[in-house]
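Input (structure):
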């Protein structure tokens, strides 16, 4: 398809046709560029996105200085929306509120009065209830706006002007960080310490080609407003700052509080950046409820103004380091904060920058601001000097000047001709108020003129020498460090560094108190763990219509293995079984056993045991007990069964022969070594059936004979099984006299 213009009369609109791919491509590209440049990515020079820049500028226009009064947030967001940012007022207020949150912004740019949210994740109050003004840091970002320090552009409707970028007297991009998602790219920059950033800038002023290692020595890592402990290895931090991409492991700060008599608790005083405290506590409570960390007993929030989370161990014998290691691995008390320094260079080009490139962009911007402010000041001085020269002439000829003004209809050209005045000088004299005559003293005028000439000479030296410019920038940076650096209130580093101990894979059994239990599982699948080893023939209560099926002695540290008719094995820790009070809980709440499947066997895991598994079709194989342990609720498929076939049994292996009995009461005995050992599969045919399927199976030692239990519970033995010996997979012969009618060996 090609572009065509449909023929139409002149008074009708012309329809343009173009390929859909190109139309969508062009429009989506425009949207992507708009998102990247005007919404998602910050400017490398002042570290701000347009909405934040417009909020600060609008507050400056409202004269909301850091030492002045507060104004309603609704008024501020309304002005921003009406004058500079034609988007939703809710989005503007949210952006402004974040600039006031001390737990989100390392150096807040808005001073909020009222409820601006908290670290629990609660939202700020409505804009009509809160008030705000600028902070000293925000004023430092805008210092020089009135001195032509940066370019201005028309606002969205052309009625006002707004700054393209702020002068920024400190590297705000790194100091406060930034995050955003654009089309096909994103940015995520953590906050840093201004004192350290100024040191790095001063190094780059003195040594423009400073290496990444030298810069990282001065900026060792982020400085999060919520503190925390950075445990990322130094070489990883160096690589992240060198490439602009990486991540930092950040942990909560904690300590052990001694409660006396051997008891203790862990107190968390700082949590990782951007982690909501309320959700963190919910997660810890879930870990306790699901017994994912069995050595964690309780969690409490005792926070007031400061963070204070209490973690109680289940017993005093628990190692605090082991407990915290597990908590770090399973909760947001340890996070990975990604670094992706994707920023707009010169406000136009998105680029993933290194630490050095970001600092260089800031320093180059500061130099441009310095030059522009100096030129602006030079122009002001030249204008003032011109006016002063006119004032001096007027002072020396004051009577004549007054006479001309009183007598002439057009005094301006007469004065210009008589005293050789410029238009500016004559206008200044004519606009002077009478009360100013008392200040018109020659000595005072000459003193001001001389001071301005000296300042002008300094400015000319500054503008003519790059070295002098960098020296002035260094002085300005030192002043910034005094205002916001390490010695200023809130300027000390909050996040500290530590080396993370290597994670130890401590088995769960080692963390649990070893106690005897009796595991009871009913026919309907309700399981419980009775305390202690009770008599296995003790009468127990079950739900109506239910009865006992499995009962055995175990310990809380044992792994309990469940085998389902679907051929899957499931693993449950003894300590995680529900208590013996009541009827217990359905086993299906602890494992993902399908509703159509039933429990075949439930037993204690013994690592040095081999198991034999078999299906109703008579297929089976040997499997090592280690191979059947499952790591998840979903279990582990071991015996493959097709539709209509179910797993029949799972028994430990002992002896040298196998005896199989089918539903047809035929028994087959064959050597155990004819059955292969596998990790998963259908297995091999154990016994052949015309009708029915496998009923039961046992392993025994041939020399000791085949045993079974009669209906009275007595053990009977058939010493000579030669009649039933055969090859695996054959049909076998009818069971011996006295064999149980239920076709089971036990």
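Output (sequence):
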């Amino acid at each position: 398809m090609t572009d065509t213009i449909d023929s139409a009369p002149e008074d009708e609109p012309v329809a343009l046709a173009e390929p859909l791919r190109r139309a969508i491509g062009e429009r989506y590209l425009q949207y992507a560029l708009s998102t990247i440049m005007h919404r998602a990515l910050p400017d490398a020079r002042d570290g701000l996105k347009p909405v934040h820049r417009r909020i600060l500028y609008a507050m400056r226009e409202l004269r909301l200085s850091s030492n002045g009064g507060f104004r309603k947030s609704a008024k501020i967001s309304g002005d921003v929306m009406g004058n500079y940012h034609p988007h939703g007022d809710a989005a503007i207020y949210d952006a402004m509120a974040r600039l006031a949150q001390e737990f989100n912004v390392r150096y807040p740019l808005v001073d909020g009065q009222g409820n601006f949210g908290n670290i629990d994740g609660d939202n700020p109050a409505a804009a009509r209830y809160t008030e705000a003004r600028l902070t000293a840091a925000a004023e430092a970002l805008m210092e020089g706006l009135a001195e032509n320090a940066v370019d201005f552009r028309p606002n969205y409707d052309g009625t006002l002007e707004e700054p393209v970028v702020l002068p920024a007297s400190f590297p705000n991009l790194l100091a406060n960080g930034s995050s955003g998602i654009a089309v096909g790219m994103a940015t995520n920059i953590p906050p840093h310490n201004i004192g350290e950033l100024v040191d790095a800038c001063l190094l780059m002023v003195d040594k423009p080609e400073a290496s990444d290692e030298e810069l990282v020595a001065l900026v060792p890592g982020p400085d999060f407003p919520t503190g925390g402990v950075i445990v990322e290895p130094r070489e990883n931090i160096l690589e992240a700052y060198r490439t602009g991409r990486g991540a930092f492991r950040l942990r909560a700060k904690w300590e052990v509080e001694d409660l006396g008599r051997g008891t203790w608790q862990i107190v968390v005083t700082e949590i990782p950046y951007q982690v909501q405290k309320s959700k963190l506590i919910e997660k810890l409570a879930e870990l306790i409820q699901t017994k994912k960390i069995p050595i964690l007993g309780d969690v409490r929030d005792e926070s007031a103004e400061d963070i204070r989370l209490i973690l109680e161990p289940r017993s005093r014998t628990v190692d605090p380091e082991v407990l915290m290691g597990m908590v770090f691995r399973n909760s947001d008390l340890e996070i990975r904060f990604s670094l992706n320094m994707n920023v707009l260079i010169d406000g136009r080009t998105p680029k993933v920058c290194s630490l050095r490139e970001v600092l260089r962009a800031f320093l180059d911007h500061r130099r441009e601001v310095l030059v522009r402010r100096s030129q602006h000041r030079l122009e002001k001085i030249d204008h003032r000097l011109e006016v002063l020269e006119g004032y001096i002439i007027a002072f020396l000829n004051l009577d004549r000047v007054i006479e001309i003004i009183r007598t002439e209809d057009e005094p301006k050209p007469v004065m210009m001709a008589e005293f050789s005045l410029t238009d500016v000088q004559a206008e200044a004299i004519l606009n002077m108020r009478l009360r100013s005559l008392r200040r018109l003293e020659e000595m005072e005028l000459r003193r001001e003129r001389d001071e301005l000439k000296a300042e002008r000479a300094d400015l000319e030296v500054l503008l003519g020498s790059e070295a002098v410019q960098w020296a002035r920038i260094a002085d300005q940076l030192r002043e910034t460090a005094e205002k916001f650096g390490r010695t200023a209130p809130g300027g000390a580093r909050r996040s500290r560094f530590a080396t993370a101990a290597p994670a130890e894979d401590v088995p769960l059994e080692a963390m649990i108190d070893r106690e005897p239990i009796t595991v009871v599982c009913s026919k309907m699948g309700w399981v419980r763990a009775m305390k202690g080893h009770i008599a296995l023939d003790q009468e127990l209560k079950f739900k109506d219509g239910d009865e006992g099926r499995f009962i055995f002695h175990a310990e809380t540290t044992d792994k309990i293995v469940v085998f389902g008719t679907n051929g899957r094995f499931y693993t449950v820790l003894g300590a995680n079984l529900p208590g013996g009070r009541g009827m217990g809980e359905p086993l299906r709440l602890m494992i993902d056993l399908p509703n159509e499947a039933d429990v075949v066997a439930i037993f204690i895991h013994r690592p040095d045991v081999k198991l034999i598994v078999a299906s109703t079709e008579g297929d089976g194989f040997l499997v090592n007990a280690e191979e059947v342990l499952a790591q998840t609720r979903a279990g582990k498929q071991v015996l493959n069964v097709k539709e209509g076939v179910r797993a029949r049994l799972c028994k430990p292996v002992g002896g040298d022969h196998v005896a199989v009995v089918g539903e047809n009461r035929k028994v087959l005995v064959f050597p155990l070594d004819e059955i292969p050992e596998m990790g998963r599969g259908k297995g091999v045919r154990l016994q052949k059936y015309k009708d029915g399927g496998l009923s039961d199976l046992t392993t025994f030692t041939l020399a000791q004979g085949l045993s079974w239990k009669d209906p009275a519970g007595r053990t009977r033995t058939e010493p000579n099984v030669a009649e039933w010996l055969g090859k695996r997979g054959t049909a076998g012969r009818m069971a011996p006299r006295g064999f149980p009618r239920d076709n089971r060996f036990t």
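Notes: The chain has five domains: 19-189, 253-332, 362-484, 514-604, 606-629+643-746. The chain has 17 helices and 37 strands.
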